[in-house]
Amino acid sequence: MMVKMGVMSTHDTPALGICPECAAAIAPARVLIEYERGGGEVTAFAECPGCREVIRPV
């Protein structure tokens, strides 16, 4: 499933996830830090364009 904000772009970039606080779509360009957890799971923290908080996209 791809979540989009109201702005159209010339190409579709899949969202990294959504903000758990305001449900805004989080684009990969918003990632602040990405790291690998045990077992090879990759997770990230990103800045939400909606509420401007640092969040872990879901």
TrEMBL record:
Residue ranges constituting the DUF7837 domain according to the UniProt record: 12-57
Q: Which domain of life is it from?
A: Archaea
| Pfam families hit by this protein | DUF7837
Question: What InterPro entries does the record tag this protein with?
Answer: DUF7837
Protein name per the record: Phage terminase large subunit family protein
Q: Can you name the source organism?
A: Saliphagus infecundisoli
